[in-house]
Design a protein that fits this description.
Length: 110
């Protein structure tokens, strides 16, 4: 019970940061802004997955993702079904992947 309310608080803080930021933010950016240094990137992507659902359910906002891309060949991961950072480029096998970036925007802006 306690853990759940803690999670909710973290999500609310992430939502606020994603809403207020002018630029799309990577998971690393969000961790740095909120000082959540003990939160693993995998957990942050899990939070983002739930945040995407909850803002969509409320109706007037949407979580948008700038897809990750390969820094070596420019390949863009446009076919992701959930927020994550791929480990390897399917085209050139490079592991130099630019992480996805996120922002919450009003539906009027879509
Ligand atoms: Zn590549």
């Amino acid at each position: 019970m306690k853990l759940m309310s803690l999670n909710e608080t973290v999500r609310e803080r992430i939502i606020k940061v994603l809403r207020d930021s002018l630029e799309p933010l990577t998971v690393e950016d969000i961790v740095a802004i909120l000082g959540l240094t003990d939160l693993k990137p995998r957990d942050m992507y899990e939070h983002l997955k739930h945040i995407a659902k909850s803002v969509r359910a409320k109706g007037h906002e949407v979580l948008v993702m700038i897809p990750p891309s390969c820094r070596s060949c420019g390949f863009t991961f446009t076919n992701l079904d959930k927020p994550k950072k791929p480990s390897k480029c399917p085209k050139c096998k490079s592991e130099r992947i630019a992480p996805p970036a996120f922002k919450i925007i009003s539906r009027d802006q879509v």
